[in-house]
Amino acid sequence: MIRELSFLKSNEFSGPFRPTRGHDNDITLCDDDLKDISTGPGVYIILSEDKTKFVYPNGMNSIIYIGQAKNLRRRLREHLRHLNDLIDHEIYYLREHIERCPRYQYMRFHGARVITFNCLKRTQTAKELESIILLKFYEKYRSIPVGNGARSFSLDK
């Protein structure tokens, strides 16, 4: 397993927990073609491409953002479009999309490596899987990733 994802290793999960079986894709958002990414539901984790580690209350990790989607390929294309908009039109983008800007600033300056996990068929939703992964990250680092907003995390299971 990728070192940055070691917080997902755990024996305390009952039932199917998708990430323990490994990731489905490992790509660079700006360089790789997204055709191999599933159009189904899943979770994606964006890490700094240049191995920059962000300081959290209980350690350091290169994860920028953890997200979920009903269609992974479409959602990653949206991220790529927003990132390119920021690079091409920084002033306009800052004014119009200030709430999303931090995650794209991190991606702009540190790159965006993306790890995807497809949901298990009929046994979990993308939102459930995202909540589990965010909770595991929070338990390990006592914070959510730098690019996630406070609304993306809930202790409710």
Helix-strand topology string: EEEEEHHHEH
Sheet of most strands: 4 strands, antiparallel
**Principal-axis shape:** globular
> Which architecture would the CATH scheme give at its second level?
3-Layer(aba) Sandwich
Can you tell me about this structure?
By secondary structure, the chain is α+β, with helices and mostly antiparallel strands. The chain has one domain: GIY-YIG endonuclease (3-Layer(aba) Sandwich), CATH 3.40.1440.10. 32% of the residues lie in helices and 18% in strands. It has four helices and six strands; from the N terminus they run βββββαααβα. Strands 1-6-2-5 form a four-stranded antiparallel β-sheet. Helix 1 packs across helix 3. It starts with 24 loop residues before the first strand and ends in a 16-residue tail after the last helix. The mean pLDDT is 84.
Please summarize what this structure is:
With 157 residues, this protein is an alpha+beta fold.
Q: Which descriptors apply to this entry?
A:
157 residues, alpha+beta, GIY-YIG endonuclease, four-stranded antiparallel sheet, 6 strands, 32% helix, globular
Topology:
Blueprint: E1 25-28, E2 42-47, E3 54-56, E4 59-61, E5 63-69, H1 72-88, H2 90-96, H3 101-110, E6 113-118, H4 126-141
Antiparallel strand pairs: 1-6, 2-5, 2-6, 3-4
